[in-house]
C-alpha cells in the first residue's frame, strides 16, 4: 500500500507542468533563474497586473474570457478551452510592449506542441512563445517573428522559468492607402537583443487577425492548447511623452548581458541595457567584434582607440 501511494504521488508530480525539470540538461545555472520582473513606468498602460483581466476580451468579442488567474496572480492559458484573448484597446502608434511569461515543461511533447503561445502586435505580427530551450532557433521558435525572421540568438531560459519580452514596434506607414514603409520590430528577450530593427515583410503572420494593415489593432495573446503563464504586462505608447522606458526599473548602471560563447570561447558582443534608447535601438556597442576572453587588457584598449 505504501509503495502504491508513493507511486501515485510521483506520477502526480511528473504531471505538474511547472514541477521539477527531471531529465532536462541545463546548459548553465542562470538558465534556471527567473528573469527579474520589471515594474511598469509612470504613465504606462497596464494590461495585466496579476488581478484583473478587464483590459482583455475574447478574440471573437462575445465569448467570456476562459483564461484563469492563478492564486499566485498569473494569467494562465486554459489548454485550448479559453481561446485567444485580445486587448479591448487598439494601438496604431509606435509602442513598447513588456510581457513576462513562462512555458510549461512538457518533455513528452515535441516541436510546436511544447509550451506554445504567442504575442501578436496589432493582432497581426507574432513574436512566438514556445519551449525552445537549447535549440538552434528558427523563425517558428521562441523569440522568432513567425514566418518572418529567426532570433539573432537563442536567449531562452529553461521551461518553468520566468522570461521577459521587451518589444519595440513601429507600425507600417501608409499614405493614400499605399504602403510607404514596412513595420519594424526590435525585441529584447531576457535583456538580450534578438531582433534589431527587423522589417516585417508580411501584412499578417500565421493565425493573426488580419484586416487592414493601415489600421491599428489590439495586442493578442494566443491560446495554442498549452498552459503557458503570463504576468506583468504593460505598454508604453510613443505618443505618451509622460511615460519613459528609463523609468521601468532598469538600473542606471545595469548589468551587461553576455552573448552565449561560441565554440572557441568567444563572445560575439556585449550590450548594456542602458545603451538602448527608448525605441530599443543600440546607442553604442561596447564590443563590436568577436573578442577572445583571454585577450590581454592592453590589447583591448589598443583596439578600442584604433576603432575611433
How does this structure look, described?
- The protein is mainly β.
- The chain folds into two domains: 20-250, Jelly Rolls (Sandwich); 253-308, no CATH class.
- The protein has two helices and 19 strands.
- Strands 1, 3, 4, 6, 9, 12, 13 and 15 form an eight-stranded antiparallel β-sheet that branches. Strands 2-5-14-7-8 form a five-stranded antiparallel β-sheet, with no helix packed on it. Strands 10-11 form a two-stranded antiparallel sheet.
- The chain is globular and about 55 Å long.
- The termini are far apart.
- Mean pLDDT is 80; it is low at 1-14, 245-278 and 280-308.
Radius of gyration computed on alpha carbons: 21 Å
The CATH first-level class of the largest domain comes to: Mainly Beta
* Sequence stretches where pLDDT stays below 50 over 5 or more residues: 1-14, 245-278, 280-308
Proportion of strand residues: 25-35%
Mean pLDDT: 80
Number of strands: 19
Main β sheet profile: 8 strands, antiparallel
Number of domains: 2
CATH superfamily of the largest domain: Exo-inulinase, domain 1
Structural class: mainly beta
CATH architecture of the largest domain: Sandwich
C-alpha end-to-end distance: 75 Å
Helix content: under 10%
The CATH topology of the largest domain comes to Jelly Rolls
